[in-house]
């Protein structure tokens, strides 16, 4: 069945008559006349006042770069997709992702007639990154190779915004996205930091120039900014859970928290096998997986990792951070009522990193439970 024969499924309609619907692997927002858009798209990106359709399209996982797309580049591919969907490319703007449109989340909120609706798709399990991480490519001669994993957001504002307020709205929405990732402790895949987004995130802001509500401020102190931020946090949190499986519950695991430092079961076993006691790998790994989900241990892990973060940011002197982390480590055996006394003088080492000491202490505890 061709794309133009596939039924459009209406998902939501705003009070301003913007219609959000699903068609095959695309989510489309049909805009009434008089809409202003600010878009990061290759197709009609930047500020425009003639956009009639906004789309978010899922590309095949087999596509690895712009040259693999039909048409040979992203802009031309979006034109082709638009035409197949029955949309005029000259009046459209859109985004690409490998995330499923079935995992799109729509959140809407209002205050005294001011309505904000946010539509988000997202995944961070592959491409989550932190601002300032080392680059994945250097763009030259308009050739680069994008990677998978993207958070795409469409923000529909039921008010007329001055042009500068439109750009501020994008800043506020971006901060909302980042706040959601930080609250989930979503890891960067390129450093030991917490992700602030992905390397391929896109966003489209839409305002209604025909609306009698005229606003000049969309920053965090304004009610509009509050609505944008809250909607973004909720939508990003939900879609990341659906697409990437990262939720408050899945993050309640010591091994998950340690992933951003490249710590895994193999590393734990390597350390545990050097400590006193019986060396039976299957038994140790089973206990490690079970103990790692203990909420008290996860809380202590979070405390130690935050100390490490603050040391790396220069907020805490390394020696002070180490002493505080060691104090936390001394409490770990008491959580599990271990009869044996942990030989801290043999295990804790001032010359090793806080992380190395944490792994040794917790490996000893797990081995002796």
UniProtKB/TrEMBL annotation:
EC number: 3.5.1.90
An example Gene Ontology molecular-function term: adenosylcobinamide hydrolase activity
Keyword Hydrolase on entry: yes
Pfam families cross-referenced by the UniProt entry: CbiZ
Coiled coil: none
Keyword tags: Hydrolase
Keyword Ribosomal protein: no
Enzyme class at the top of the EC tree: hydrolase
Matches recorded under InterPro entries: AdoCbi_amidolase, CbiZ
PANTHER family associated with the record: ADENOSYLCOBINAMIDE AMIDOHYDROLASE
Name recorded for this polypeptide: Adenosylcobinamide hydrolase
Organism this protein belongs to: Methanococcoides alaskense
